[in-house]
Design a protein that fits this description.
5-stranded parallel β-sheet; Cell_Envelope_Assoc; Rossmann fold; DUF218 domain-containing protein; disordered N terminus; DUF218; Rossmann-like_a/b/a_fold; alpha/beta; 192 residues
């Protein structure tokens, strides 16, 4: 998804934009942060993703910068910068959450990716409350209907294929063993 990133200048890695499907979850995180602040709750957000595009900055850092720019304090954000895909992200975020022992875990994710993300997190012991934050619709847009339909079909196919692959790998014993369920602790609220 390198096309979904924008680099202002070749030597300036400060202006890399979040991936296209990240904007909905980022805006939901900002809204959730304000709700936490109003309720005097502690919210911790985890941004995840390595520098997959090779532009010198991780997806986790790009998302964290967007959250900070929107008013979320840097100390409320944990960056997981090692994962190269959703499976690895789920493993690493699971490790972080097992050490944090949050009282509640909410997954802020784009709707098309929600089912697979929840499945992978559950494999690593994290039962998250889903909060779909962006939807892929083929109406009410200025984008070409044909192009948008192809995008929707490709995203849907990829998500179903990845769920099928997960099931097959479990059946063949190729996935790592499932983790025990996350022990919830004393933090007021955590989000991934």
């Amino acid at each position: 998804m390198e096309w979904a990133r924008k680099k202002i200048a070749a030597d300036d890695r400060t202006y890399v934009e979040p991936l296209a499907f990240a904007y909905g979850p980022l805006m939901a995180a900002v809204d959730m942060y304000h709700q936490c602040a109003q309720g005097q709750l502690k919210c911790t957000f985890i941004t995840a993703g390595a520098d997959i595009a090779g532009n010198g900055i991780s997806e986790a850092e790009v998302s964290a910068r967007a959250l900070i720019k929107a008013g979320i304090p840097t100390q409320a954000i944990i960056r997981e910068e090692e994962s190269l895909n959703t499976w690895e992200s789920s493993r690493h975020v699971g490790e972080i959450l097992h050490s944090l022992k949050p009282k509640r875990v909410v997954l802020l994710q784009s709707a098309p990716m929600m089912k697979r993300s929840l499945l992978y997190l559950e494999h690593f012991g994290v039962i998250a409350e889903p909060m779909a934050a962006a939807y892929l619709t083929t109406s009410h847009t200025n984008m070409s209907a044909t192009g948008l339909n192809f995008l929707a079909a490709e995203v849907g196919f990829q998500e179903h294929f990845d769920i099928w692959r997960y099931t097959l790998y479990n059946y063949l014993g190729w996935n790592e063993p499932k983790e025990p369920p996350l022990a919830l602790g004393e933090l007021s609220q955590s989000s991934t």
